[in-house]
Protein backbone atom coordinates (compact mmCIF):
# COMPACT_ATOMS: atom_id res chain seq x y z
CA UNK A 1 0.00 0.00 0.00
CA UNK A 2 1.38 3.38 -1.02
CA UNK A 3 1.04 5.76 1.90
CA UNK A 4 -0.10 9.37 1.61
CA UNK A 5 2.52 11.83 2.80
CA UNK A 6 1.57 14.54 5.27
CA UNK A 7 3.07 17.84 6.43
CA UNK A 8 1.88 19.65 9.57
CA UNK A 9 2.25 23.42 9.80
CA UNK A 10 1.47 25.17 13.09
CA UNK A 11 3.42 27.52 15.34
CA UNK A 12 2.01 25.81 18.45
CA UNK A 13 3.81 22.64 19.47
CA UNK A 14 0.75 21.29 21.30
CA UNK A 15 -1.36 21.61 18.13
CA UNK A 16 1.30 19.79 16.08
CA UNK A 17 1.48 17.02 18.67
CA UNK A 18 -2.30 16.54 18.61
CA UNK A 19 -2.26 16.19 14.84
CA UNK A 20 0.63 13.75 14.94
CA UNK A 21 -1.23 11.54 17.40
CA UNK A 22 -4.33 11.43 15.20
CA UNK A 23 -2.32 10.84 12.01
CA UNK A 24 -0.44 7.97 13.65
CA UNK A 25 -3.73 6.10 13.85
CA UNK A 26 -4.01 5.91 10.05
CA UNK A 27 -1.96 3.23 8.31
CA UNK A 28 -2.57 5.05 5.02
CA UNK A 29 -0.60 8.12 6.15
CA UNK A 30 3.01 8.94 6.92
CA UNK A 31 4.24 12.22 8.39
CA UNK A 32 7.20 13.55 6.39
CA UNK A 33 7.73 17.01 7.88
CA UNK A 34 6.63 19.61 10.40
CA UNK A 35 6.93 23.38 10.23
CA UNK A 36 6.44 26.04 12.88
CA UNK A 37 6.30 29.06 10.57
CA UNK A 38 5.27 30.04 7.05
CA UNK A 39 8.75 30.27 5.55
CA UNK A 40 9.70 26.79 6.73
CA UNK A 41 6.32 25.49 5.56
CA UNK A 42 6.90 26.69 2.00
CA UNK A 43 10.35 25.15 1.96
CA UNK A 44 9.10 21.79 3.24
CA UNK A 45 6.13 21.67 0.88
CA UNK A 46 8.32 22.50 -2.12
CA UNK A 47 10.89 19.90 -1.05
CA UNK A 48 8.67 17.04 0.11
CA UNK A 49 5.74 17.48 -2.35
CA UNK A 50 3.21 16.06 0.16
CA UNK A 51 -0.22 14.63 -0.56
CA UNK A 52 -1.85 16.39 2.40
CA UNK A 53 -1.03 19.58 4.33
CA UNK A 54 -2.57 20.61 7.65
CA UNK A 55 -2.03 24.35 7.76
CA UNK A 56 -2.53 26.88 10.55
CA UNK A 57 -3.58 30.37 9.44
CA UNK A 58 -2.35 32.73 12.18
CA UNK A 59 1.46 32.52 12.17
CA UNK A 60 4.25 35.11 12.48
CA UNK A 61 5.54 36.83 9.31
CA UNK A 62 3.93 34.56 6.69
CA UNK A 63 0.43 33.29 7.49
CA UNK A 64 -1.36 30.22 6.14
CA UNK A 65 -2.85 32.09 3.19
CA UNK A 66 0.64 33.22 2.16
CA UNK A 67 1.80 29.61 2.29
CA UNK A 68 -1.18 28.38 0.26
CA UNK A 69 -0.62 31.06 -2.39
CA UNK A 70 3.10 30.35 -2.65
CA UNK A 71 2.48 26.63 -3.18
CA UNK A 72 -0.78 26.78 -5.14
CA UNK A 73 0.74 25.16 -8.23
CA UNK A 74 1.52 21.98 -6.31
CA UNK A 75 -1.13 19.29 -6.06
CA UNK A 76 -1.91 18.51 -2.45
CA UNK A 77 -5.01 18.31 -0.26
CA UNK A 78 -5.14 21.37 2.02
CA UNK A 79 -6.83 21.44 5.41
CA UNK A 80 -6.85 24.78 7.23
CA UNK A 81 -6.85 24.71 11.01
CA UNK A 82 -7.39 27.92 12.95
CA UNK A 83 -8.97 29.33 16.07
CA UNK A 84 -10.66 32.04 14.03
CA UNK A 85 -13.97 31.16 12.34
CA UNK A 86 -14.04 34.41 10.33
CA UNK A 87 -11.41 33.02 7.94
CA UNK A 88 -13.72 30.29 6.62
CA UNK A 89 -14.91 32.04 3.45
CA UNK A 90 -11.44 33.24 2.53
CA UNK A 91 -10.06 29.77 3.20
CA UNK A 92 -12.34 28.21 0.61
CA UNK A 93 -11.29 30.75 -2.00
CA UNK A 94 -8.07 28.72 -1.98
CA UNK A 95 -7.81 25.02 -2.81
CA UNK A 96 -8.74 23.99 0.75
CA UNK A 97 -10.69 20.76 1.06
CA UNK A 98 -11.59 21.28 4.72
CA UNK A 99 -11.56 23.88 7.49
CA UNK A 100 -11.37 22.94 11.15
CA UNK A 101 -11.77 25.36 14.03
CA UNK A 102 -9.27 24.89 16.87
CA UNK A 103 -9.26 23.38 19.32
CA UNK A 104 -10.60 20.64 17.05
CA UNK A 105 -11.62 17.40 18.69
CA UNK A 106 -9.53 14.37 17.63
CA UNK A 107 -12.63 12.68 16.19
CA UNK A 108 -13.26 15.68 13.89
CA UNK A 109 -9.67 15.60 12.68
CA UNK A 110 -9.95 11.85 12.08
CA UNK A 111 -13.21 12.37 10.19
CA UNK A 112 -11.55 14.96 7.95
CA UNK A 113 -8.64 12.62 7.28
CA UNK A 114 -10.98 9.77 6.44
CA UNK A 115 -12.82 11.96 3.95
CA UNK A 116 -9.56 12.98 2.27
CA UNK A 117 -8.40 9.38 1.95
CA UNK A 118 -11.70 8.31 0.39
CA UNK A 119 -11.74 11.25 -2.00
CA UNK A 120 -8.21 10.57 -3.17
CA UNK A 121 -9.15 7.00 -4.02
CA UNK A 122 -12.46 7.83 -5.71
CA UNK A 123 -11.96 11.15 -7.51
CA UNK A 124 -11.00 10.81 -11.14
CA UNK A 125 -7.43 12.01 -11.77
CA UNK A 126 -8.40 14.14 -14.76
CA UNK A 127 -8.04 17.49 -13.03
CA UNK A 128 -9.94 19.26 -10.29
CA UNK A 129 -13.62 18.41 -10.01
CA UNK A 130 -16.35 21.04 -10.09
CA UNK A 131 -17.92 21.39 -6.67
CA UNK A 132 -20.01 23.35 -4.19
CA UNK A 133 -18.88 24.58 -0.79
CA UNK A 134 -21.58 24.16 1.86
CA UNK A 135 -21.64 25.04 5.56
CA UNK A 136 -22.41 22.18 7.90
CA UNK A 137 -22.44 23.53 11.45
CA UNK A 138 -18.78 24.22 12.38
CA UNK A 139 -17.38 22.80 9.14
CA UNK A 140 -17.33 23.72 5.49
CA UNK A 141 -17.94 20.77 3.17
CA UNK A 142 -16.79 20.61 -0.44
CA UNK A 143 -19.30 18.58 -2.44
CA UNK A 144 -18.57 17.49 -5.99
CA UNK A 145 -21.36 17.99 -8.50
CA UNK A 146 -21.47 14.28 -9.27
CA UNK A 147 -22.16 13.52 -5.60
CA UNK A 148 -25.34 15.62 -5.52
CA UNK A 149 -28.55 13.68 -6.20
CA UNK A 150 -31.11 16.45 -5.76
CA UNK A 151 -31.82 19.57 -3.72
CA UNK A 152 -35.18 20.29 -2.13
CA UNK A 153 -36.55 23.38 -0.44
CA UNK A 154 -38.03 22.86 3.01
CA UNK A 155 -39.35 26.08 4.53
CA UNK A 156 -36.45 28.48 5.03
CA UNK A 157 -33.86 25.74 4.48
CA UNK A 158 -32.62 23.64 1.59
CA UNK A 159 -31.73 19.96 1.91
CA UNK A 160 -28.98 18.65 -0.35
CA UNK A 161 -29.40 14.90 -0.93
CA UNK A 162 -26.18 13.07 -1.77
CA UNK A 163 -25.67 10.05 -3.99
CA UNK A 164 -24.48 6.85 -2.36
CA UNK A 165 -20.78 7.52 -3.15
CA UNK A 166 -21.20 11.07 -1.86
CA UNK A 167 -22.82 9.85 1.34
CA UNK A 168 -19.96 7.41 1.92
CA UNK A 169 -17.35 10.13 1.46
CA UNK A 170 -19.03 12.71 3.68
CA UNK A 171 -20.56 10.31 6.23
CA UNK A 172 -24.01 11.80 5.75
CA UNK A 173 -26.88 11.36 3.31
CA UNK A 174 -28.07 14.97 3.42
CA UNK A 175 -26.73 18.45 4.19
CA UNK A 176 -28.92 21.33 5.35
CA UNK A 177 -28.18 24.74 3.83
CA UNK A 178 -29.66 28.22 4.17
CA UNK A 179 -28.76 29.06 0.56
CA UNK A 180 -31.76 29.65 -1.71
CA UNK A 181 -32.56 27.46 -4.70
CA UNK A 182 -31.88 30.48 -6.92
CA UNK A 183 -28.44 30.66 -5.33
CA UNK A 184 -27.82 27.00 -6.13
CA UNK A 185 -29.01 27.55 -9.70
CA UNK A 186 -26.43 30.29 -10.14
CA UNK A 187 -23.64 27.88 -9.12
CA UNK A 188 -24.76 24.68 -10.80
CA UNK A 189 -24.33 24.26 -14.58
CA UNK A 190 -27.65 24.06 -16.45
CA UNK A 191 -26.33 21.21 -18.57
CA UNK A 192 -25.94 19.02 -15.48
CA UNK A 193 -28.76 20.17 -13.18
CA UNK A 194 -32.44 20.85 -13.87
CA UNK A 195 -34.72 23.14 -11.87
CA UNK A 196 -37.87 21.03 -12.16
CA UNK A 197 -40.03 22.84 -9.70
CA UNK A 198 -39.97 25.86 -7.40
CA UNK A 199 -38.86 23.45 -4.65
CA UNK A 200 -36.55 21.03 -6.49
CA UNK A 201 -33.29 20.85 -8.43
CA UNK A 202 -32.10 17.46 -9.70
CA UNK A 203 -28.85 16.06 -11.04
CA UNK A 204 -29.65 15.11 -14.65
CA UNK A 205 -27.29 12.12 -14.46
CA UNK A 206 -29.52 10.58 -11.74
CA UNK A 207 -32.71 10.83 -13.83
CA UNK A 208 -34.29 7.43 -14.54
CA UNK A 209 -37.72 8.27 -15.93
CA UNK A 210 -40.36 10.94 -16.48
CA UNK A 211 -43.81 9.76 -15.40
CA UNK A 212 -47.36 11.09 -15.79
CA UNK A 213 -49.93 10.03 -13.24
CA UNK A 214 -53.07 11.57 -11.73
CA UNK A 215 -52.72 14.49 -14.16
CA UNK A 216 -49.28 15.35 -12.78
CA UNK A 217 -45.71 14.85 -14.02
CA UNK A 218 -42.89 13.62 -11.81
CA UNK A 219 -39.45 12.07 -12.23
CA UNK A 220 -37.77 9.04 -10.71
CA UNK A 221 -34.17 9.44 -9.58
CA UNK A 222 -31.57 6.80 -8.83
CA UNK A 223 -31.23 6.47 -5.08
CA UNK A 224 -34.25 8.65 -4.28
CA UNK A 225 -37.01 7.10 -2.18
CA UNK A 226 -39.79 9.32 -3.52
CA UNK A 227 -40.71 10.72 -6.96
CA UNK A 228 -39.88 14.39 -7.60
CA UNK A 229 -42.66 16.65 -8.94
CA UNK A 230 -42.20 18.56 -12.20
CA UNK A 231 -43.90 21.91 -12.70
CA UNK A 232 -46.11 22.24 -15.79
CA UNK A 233 -43.96 25.07 -17.14
CA UNK A 234 -40.89 22.81 -17.25
CA UNK A 235 -42.39 19.60 -18.66
CA UNK A 236 -41.77 20.37 -22.33
CA UNK A 237 -38.25 21.61 -21.66
CA UNK A 238 -37.50 18.47 -19.69
CA UNK A 239 -38.84 16.23 -22.47
CA UNK A 240 -36.65 18.06 -24.97
CA UNK A 241 -33.58 17.63 -22.78
CA UNK A 242 -34.28 13.94 -22.27
CA UNK A 243 -34.64 13.47 -26.02
CA UNK A 244 -31.41 15.39 -26.64
CA UNK A 245 -29.59 13.35 -24.04
CA UNK A 246 -30.85 10.07 -25.54
CA UNK A 247 -29.75 11.19 -29.01
CA UNK A 248 -26.29 12.18 -27.74
CA UNK A 249 -25.76 8.97 -25.79
CA UNK A 250 -27.14 6.89 -28.66
From TrEMBL:
Record domain Response regulatory: where: 5-117
Keyword Zinc: no
Domain of life: Bacteria
Sequence ranges assigned to domain HTH LytTR-type in this UniProt record: 132-244
Residues recorded as bearing 4-aspartylphosphate in the entry: 56
Keywords, in A-Z order: Phosphoprotein, Two-component regulatory system
Molecular-function GO terms, alphabetical: DNA binding; phosphorelay response regulator activity
Ranges in a coiled coil: none
One Pfam family this sequence matches: Response_reg
Protein name: DNA-binding response regulator
Organism in which the protein naturally occurs: Pseudoalteromonas rubra
Amino acid sequence: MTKKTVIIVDDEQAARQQLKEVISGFDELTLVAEAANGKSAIEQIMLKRPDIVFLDIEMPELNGFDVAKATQDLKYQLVFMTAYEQYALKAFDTNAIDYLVKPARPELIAKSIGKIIRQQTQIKPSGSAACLTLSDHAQQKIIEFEHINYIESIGRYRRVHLTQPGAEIHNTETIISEQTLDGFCNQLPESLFYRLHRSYIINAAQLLALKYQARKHFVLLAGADSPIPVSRSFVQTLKARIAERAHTEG
